[in-house]
Amino acid sequence: MAPGQIQLPTRDGRPFLADGGLETALVFHEGMDLPAFAAFPLLRDGEGRQTLRRCSEPYLRLAAERGAGFVLETVTWRANVERGAKIGDDAAAAAVRFASGLRDDVAEARIPILINGVIGPRYSAVRHASG
Fold first, then answer.
1. Rounded Cα gap, residues 88 and 96, in angstroms
2. E strand spans, the chain
3. Mean pLDDT over all residues of the chain?
């Protein structure tokens, strides 16, 4: 391996599971009203963090059962500068701390977890279509 190169856990050929549709699940399965369709404000309090943890647990269990790794995405898909300013939050650091803590909490399951920091689209598709 070249100096400075990172050995990612994906290099052993093991499949990795990823979650999907967190915000949609929070709205339609948890009945939550997300400001600007953003999950990152849930990081502000213990109840919100517990909800996020509960949404990740089935994926983590499935990865452990199947001998797969897991790509744990930060809850920052809607946390770009404009949306964050509307909600009054800068969540990137809190989201990474939360994801790192969740990874550390399930370490005994021996699931390789890759944390993926995600920032979604800056503008909505509707705004692009209308100019």
1. 18
2. 16-18, 69-73, 113-116
3. 81
Closest CA to 19 of 69, 66, 67: 69
pLDDT in tens, 87-109: 556 677 888 889 999 999 888 77
Identity of residue 68: A
Residue with tokens 């709205």: 27
The predicted model scores a pTM of 0.78
Q: Report long-range pairs for 97-100 (Cβ below 8 Å, ≥24 apart).
A: 98/43, 98/49, 98/52, 98/74, 99/72, 99/73, 99/74, 99/75
> Is the distance from CB of 124 to CB of 83 less than 8 angstroms?
no
Cβ atoms of 60 and 70 within 8 Å: the answer is yes
What length is written for the chain? 131
Least Cα distance to 18 among 63, 64, 79, 78 occurs for 63
Identity at 115, one-letter amino acid code: I
State the Cα–Cα distance between residues 54 and 122, nearest whole angstrom: 28
